[in-house]
Design goal:
mainly beta; twelve-stranded antiparallel sheet; Putative LOC101736715 [Bombyx mori]
Length: 276
């Protein structure tokens, strides 16, 4: 497959920098029909012809994804997993007490745990028990599945997808800013990486902007759109945080807190239900 070496971009596509002797960044068209950028610090960014994105942080075991249609986003992280599909957002985390699940949806936020007999709903009226079902987000890598599904829908056949990706790669641009930020533009997607590996991928669709971000040093990750804001990290500040409109979820590996408007509930450090 065609390979593009971005270590020495042509003058028309780059801002000259005295520090252009860094190791080569390679991009290839893979057999499944997408372009794969192998960046520094073991960060991989994959882009399908329909602008589906997968971002892999090998050092920290983090994978983020955005579907081609823009209605689905996914985060696979050691602290937990998040899946957005249309107007619903699911989260799953596991600690020594239990496996905890939550779902943000138009009626509110429902949540439960595998050692809890009930499902609870936090809506604008307060907290009550309800019935609901949740995906097992650990059954596979949801980010990989989402991206590969988008790849299969990106063209009428594999040969066409490969051809489109070859053209996208040929037209890709690279530039380096004065402060050493490496940037790539391909198929309407912007990739930026700092010298320490912090990588940001942005995709614009009309007035909507999608952001995927991760660091190879501390395991921080972020997903962002006008509908969804997710952060995750490891270490002393290990957490999963989700915000969508007036709904919030915070999980630090011990306590699990859900908020909807002025009402909040969840599980405390011992796994017991708590209403705040």
């Amino acid at each position: 497959m065609p390979r593009n070496d971005f270590s020495s971009p042509p003058p028309s596509q780059a801002q000259a920098s005295p520090n252009t002797s860094s190791s080569a960044i390679k991009a290839v068209v893979e057999k499944n029909g997408y372009v794969s950028f192998m960046l520094g610090q073991e960060i991989l960014v994959d882009i399908a012809p329909n602008q589906a994105i997968r971002m892999t942080n090998k050092k920290q075991g983090v994978t983020l994804a955005l579907s081609g249609c823009g209605t689905q986003m996914s985060l696979v992280h050691p602290q937990g997993r998040v899946l957005q599909y249309n107007s619903r957002i699911e989260m799953q985390g596991e600690d020594v007490i239990s496996v905890k699940n939550a779902k943000m949806w138009p009626k509110g936020v429902s949540f439960t745990a595998n050692n809890c007999a009930l499902v609870y709903l936090v809506d604008k009226a307060g907290v009550r028990s309800t019935s609901d079902t949740f995906f097992d987000l650990t059954s596979n890598n949801t980010s990989d599945s989402m991206f590969l599904m988008s790849c299969s829908l990106s063209a009428t056949n594999l040969a066409q997808a490969i051809y489109q990706s070859i053209e996208n790669l040929r037209e890709a641009e690279f530039w380096r800013t004065a402060d050493g930020l490496n940037c790539w533009g391909i198929n309407g997607v912007l990739i930026r990486q700092t010298s320490d590996g912090l990588t940001t991928v942005e995709r614009q669709h009309g007035a909507e902007k999608f952001v995927l971000k991760t660091s190879p040093n501390n395991g921080k990750a972020r997903l962002e759109s006008s509908f969804l804001y997710v952060t995750a990290s490891l270490g002393e500040e290990a957490h999963i945080f989700i915000k969508s409109e007036d709904r919030r979820l915070h999980y630090n590996g011990n306590s699990f807190q859900i908020r909807n408007g002025g009402h909040a509930a969840g599980f405390n450090e011992s796994g017991s239900l708590r209403i705040w």
